[in-house]
Amino acid sequence: MIAKLWVVVLGMGLSMADRPLHAEPIPSSYQQIAHEYDIPPGVLYSVALQESRMRLRSRQIRPWPWTLNVAGVPRRYPTRIAAYKGLTFYLERGIRSIDVGLMQVNWRYHQDKLGTPWQALDPHHNVRTGAKILASEYHETQDWFEAIGRYHSPGPSVQQKRRAKKYARSVAGISNNLSK
After folding, report:
1. pLDDT in tens, 21-41
2. Mind giving me the DSSP string for 100-162?
3. What's the pTM?
4. CA dist., res. 174 & res. 8, Å (int)
5. Which of 53, 74, 136, 179 is least enclosed by beta carbons within 10 angstroms?
6. What count of other Cβ atoms lies within 10 Å of the Cβ of residue 33?
């Protein structure tokens, strides 16, 4: 049922500009976590790609676990330790608007779910935290397209809803290009 709903979302006239990635397999860890939270695997992995993708030396594009977005400025670190040092540096200076890890979970709004800075950067914990948020949005809306948009921009204003819709279209374009 969930997969059929997502196929309908993908059929919503997407332009080529919305399809930035070539087909990539969904890693088994994303499939497992998606199953745990009753989320279509392509949705979960596409959100991670939208949030933290990076082209590796192998030319593959993958979500990057050591990604921070500090007050709107993305930063990619080479290791978990380096990302941890970066995260604690900003937190010690009182900066709280920091998106953390693979799923870019916002520290200000979800610190209680993220736990400690070190735990927030644990890839499995970070994806599970993002999955909980995404599943919660779906349970609230009963619509994957809207839930995806609200994952990024949950606010009620016209501008926030516009930003949410644009984000959901981008994620749908990514998902459309994943190999099944």
Report:
1. 555 689 999 999 999 999 999
2. ETTTTEEHHHHHHHH-SHHHHT-HHHHHHHHHHHHHHHHHHHS-HHHHHHHHH----SHHHHH
3. 0.86
4. 15
5. 179
6. 21
